[in-house]
Amino acid sequence: MSDPPKRRNQLEKARLVLSVGRVEVSLEDLEAAGPESRLAEGLSRPVLQRPDLEGAFVVPPLQTVALKEVLRHTAFARLSVSLPLLPFEKKIGPFRFALPPGHRALFDLEVKEGFIDRQSTQGRIDPPVDLPFGAKLRGLRLSPDGSVVVDLKNFPDLNLSALSLGNLRVPEALEDLVALWPDEDGELFGEGAPPAPGSPAAPPRPDEAPRPPGGTAAPDDDGAAPAGDRGDDGGDAPDDGDEGGDDAGLADIPIDLARVEIDASGVRPRPERFALGEIGAFTLKHPTVFDVAYSEGHLNAGGRVALSDGHLRGRRFSLAGLAGAGDFRATLEGERLDAGAHFEVGIDQGAFERFAVVLRDGTHLVLGDGAVRDAELAYFKSDDEERLRFTAGQFSGRLLQAHVRAEIGGTPHAITIDEMWVEGSISLGPDHVQVEVAIDGARLSVRDLILPLGLAQVWFSEVNATASGKLVAGTDYGLSFSGALTAEGDMRAGEAALFDVHAHLTEGTRAAVQISELAVSEGGLDVLRAQGELDFRLASGAVPLWEGARLSFSRGAEGRLVVDEVSRNLEDRFPTVRAHGHVVARSDTTALHRRFALPAGEAHIEANDIQLAPDGRLALSDLRMWLETDDG
After folding, report:
1. Are 451 and 461 in contact (CB under 8 A)?
2. How many CB atoms lie within 10 A of CB 322?
3. pLDDT (tens digit, 9 = 90+) per residue, 119-133?
4. Phi, psi of 339 (to 5 degrees)
């Protein structure tokens, strides 16, 4: 027969006081003691997931911006054109003329208000051609109707357009001359280029000048000058039936199109849209001036550019209302000038109306009314990649919308940032973002924030914060902040545990923290300087008093923890903490001994000095605990 259970004597109107000068524990020892310590890596290095930028700043295929697209916008320029001539023989009356390989027709001409100045156009054959019967070729020129005329010494001039160029007339408008160029495989000018102004597929130019009387510069559909406008400058040889006829175009004349060379200097474009295909467009304006050199599928351009109303579109970003001025250089190459490309535009100062980016993880930002200085826009294309990069040494603008997705403790969270003014520097690329901004009075909020802190896991229904200071963020190294960041939040629920101490936090708990310095990398928290306060409510919990004695409370508790200092450096295993606080718990019956127990009452715990060292030593000094039982 077993002994009856021993009855504990209950002390009434009792008061138990415990004072401790200092107690130390090692968090590392508790961590090694087993899973009951509830320590997690999140205590020392909470991890921030970097944003997913894959594909964010990839641009669609760039329309070939080659010679045709450049020249059709030209208002003023000086052009040097080298046309490689194919070998041919020509019968002129009783004479036969043979052109051996290796000759070029060289022309120097001027463009004014988009029209070719025929009177000043000069040309020559290089190397010089030996002619029979003492004739000497003094040069080439354009007749008033655009025919190419051979200027001969001791012989009448010859209309080369009628004799050998298939009645080709050089149109007076440069855009019409550009339109004559054949669009075939190996074309020079790019697929899908916008139609030239004045063509049936394009609206007329607002500043389009009238054609001079006595002839038209516009070709027929077949590329030849209209019937009835085929005059010459005299000295035409009789037609022997070998000419190309009215159906001839550039593709039918004895010119090696693949080896054409064109140098354009002092190019000043008309103020009209310059198309880049799906990637965007912009308008060039005064004082834009640049040079262009084209040779055998390779184009170089450079000069000064002023643009307005520009827009760019990529897979997950858009830039609208771009305006500015600066220097640029460009290189394009390939059979169709699309095998490789390189553009760089340096913007001394500029502005944009709206910049927006949307990442795959849901992060999206919209910046408006922006200004930039010392900026560069660069585009690179090769056979296997296409990249766009934008950097600005100085930028400012209004952050109109910002929703940032961040993964904290393995849980994704959405951070909303209110409208605010920002200024700083920025670098954007296909796989990287780097920003350095000064912010003043930024407001941000996070709903349903779950923080795994190692010793505790807490769930805030909403956290609101304000910040002023300097923010630096980059995909390569993480995020850092210095200044003043104040965050407050109401806790929905939580749990704290350290060895035999545990507690369940409940609604009514409120936290506030002030951060002066923060650095987070992909590996976790590197630097922290902060202080804060926690007004908490506990639903239940337990605190060991000594071996065999345990203070439990199931009727709730409340208290306050003041954190005077929290700091952490990259090399530290644990943060440095200095704090103090107190708690009042409605305690359950507490067993002091197998024969004695304290009835339910109130338990008070005060710790006037709590310190956690980087090596994990937790010390509590000036610790006082007392229990007061309820009356009878």
Report:
1. no
2. 23
3. 888 888 888 877 766
4. -75, -30
